[in-house]
Write a structure and sequence with these properties.
Layout: E1 4-8, H1 20-33, E2 36-44, E3 59-64, E4 67-74, H2 76-95, H3 106-123, E5 132-136, H4 143-149, E6 155-159, H5 167-171, H6 176-183, E7 188-191, H7 194-208, E8 211-214, E9 217-220, E10 223-229, H8 236-243, H9 246-258, E11 263-270, H10 277-290, E12 298-305, H11 312-332, E13 340-343, H12 352-358, E14 361-364, H13 373-381, E15 389-393, E16 406-408, H14 413-425, H15 428-444, H16 447-460
Parallel strand pairs: 1-2, 1-5, 2-4, 5-6, 6-7, 7-10, 11-12, 11-14, 12-13, 14-15, 15-16
Antiparallel strand pairs: 3-4, 8-9, 9-10
């Protein structure tokens, strides 16, 4: 394989521990080939003085070990249309099946295409002829088409980290034909789950007239595309090392002493309408109503870190969630016990393994999620001799792999409450047996497997004439 070039909306220095498992895995692959990581710097460029020519985006290149990091700034108008607008107000809700929350402002699509064209124009001069390009996520769906328009003949793969919606939901997206044609500029499209792959297959056939050629290959618009489910994993070794850190151990010991008389339930999410947080809180209330033995003994710690707070839908979900938590604490709380500990800020990642390990039950119950790596991190953090129980939404991509979790329909409040009750009452033997199977899967299909498998699939795609 030639040099690996990774393109994503944002990037991280893979040498830094705070970069996380994904950046470390990509960094490993990039280091092996002396690769390049290209993306937005995260900065908004200052506008040009009035009466002067607009500032041209400059490419900033720095060396991070054997890896080059190349970034560009965005103008305020481009950021608003491409990132806040089309990516977060259109694609995110549509791909999570929430057409009712999408804002189909036509200016957003033009800005989205403009920024993808800018990415291609700035990336193309940096590419070598034998480079392999790996594009990440919904921000950059048109990028391969823009590169092809500039003459690129590289192998280009795309991985979608969020769900792919059913065909009719995708077809409701104004301008979805642009997305359809853009996808066929890639050689390989990777998706999180077999359910996403099925949606993708039906979409390209129903809406694009794609002809299946077998072996996950599709022909349309005079291009051949391969689509595969390649579920992303976590860096288990890195997470286990994190669990042995002083901060993690201190968190575990402190929480164990603080809640010595309680059973802890844990939810760790971004504050997002796709995460099913109001439904989860209602299910916990249902548990307290129907199984009163858990009053004064069960405490739900719900971490909902800030996310996209300049989008109205997120203001609404925060208001609803805070109202529900306050209602439960007001109705059931005692002087020495609050049913819900709600935290609206980010908890340091180095403390997360200790928090996972001390919790008897993890509630990972999104309404729709591409994968949800918190579910896998919870499994990896457990003590195999006395593990907790994972309650997992069947609508998370992780549910296809983690079948020994307690799978729930988060829309079924009563059913979810019953699953939580089962988790709290589960025997030691059943907990250990379930956890062993889950951990084996998390280890086998880790982030390194994901990275290697995707790149192998990309190398195997037949070349175009």
């Amino acid at each position: 394989m030639g040099r690996l070039v990774v393109v994503s909306n944002r990037l991280a220095d893979p040498r830094k521990p705070a970069a996380g498992g994904l950046a470390v895995a990509l960094g490993e692959a990039l280091n092996n080939t002396g690769g390049l990581w290209f993306g937005w710097s995260g900065h908004i460029a200052e506008p040009a003085p009035e009466g002067s020519a607009p500032n041209e985006a400059q490419t900033h290149v720095q060396q991070a070990g054997d890896v080059k990091l190349a970034t560009i700034d965005l103008s305020r108008a481009d950021y608003d249309a491409y990132y806040l607008g089309y990516a977060n107000r259109v694609l995110w809700p549509v791909f999570h099946y929430r057409l009712d929350l999408a804002d189909f402002n036509p200016n957003y699509l033009s800005g989205y295409q403009r920024v993808n064209r800018l990415f291609a124009q700035k990336l193309m001069p940096l590419l070598n002829d034998d480079d392999v390009v790996w594009v990440h996520d919904y921000h950059l769906i048109p990028l391969a088409a823009e590169l092809r328009a500039l003459g690129s003949r590289h192998r280009i793969g795309f991985f979608l980290h969020i769900p792919f919606p059913p065909p009719l939901v995708m077809a409701a997206l104004p301008g979805h034909e642009v997305m359809l044609r853009a996808l066929f500029a890639y050689d390989l499209v990777g998706l999180q789950s077999e359910a996403d792959l099925a949606h993708f297959s039906r979409y390209v056939q129903n809406e694009g007239g794609a002809r299946p050629l077998g072996d996950d290959l599709y022909l349309a618009f005079n291009r051949t595309l391969r689509a595969r489910a390649v579920p992303i994993g976590i860096d288990v070794g890195e997470f286990e090392r994190l669990a042995q850190s002083r901060d993690s151990r201190e968190t575990f010991e402190h929480m164990r002493q603080e809640y010595a008389q309680r059973r802890l339930l844990l939810g760790v999410d971004r504050l997002d309408y796709s995460k099913g947080l109001p439904q989860r809180i209602r299910a916990f209330k249902e548990l307290l109503v129907n199984y009163p033995e858990h009053r004064k003994s069960a405490t739900l710690i719900q971490i909902a870190s800030p996310s996209r707070e300049d989008v109205d839908a997120y203001t609404d979900i925060r208001r609803e969630l805070e109202g529900l938590c306050g209602e439960i604490n007001g109705d059931y709380g005692e002087l020495d016990w609050m049913p819900v500990r709600y935290i609206h800020r980010t908890v340091a990642r180095k403390r997360l393994p200790g928090l996972c390990r001390v919790s008897s039950v993890a509630l990972v119950t999104p309404l729709r999620d591409g994968m949800n790596l918190v579910a896998k991190e919870y499994v990896a953090a457990q003590d195999p001799a006395d593990p907790g129980v994972l309650v997992l939404s069947r609508f998370a991509g992780a549910a296809e792999q983690l079948r020994d979790a307690l799978l729930v329909n988060p829309y079924d409040i009563q059913g979810t409450a019953q699953a939580i009750q089962r988790a709290l009452q589960m025997s030691h033997e059943e907990r250990c047996n379930r956890h062993a199977v889950l951990l084996d899967n998390v280890r086998k299909y880790d982030v390194h497997w994901w990275c290697t498998t995707f790149l192998q699939y990309l190398q195997e795609v037949p070349r175009h004439a």
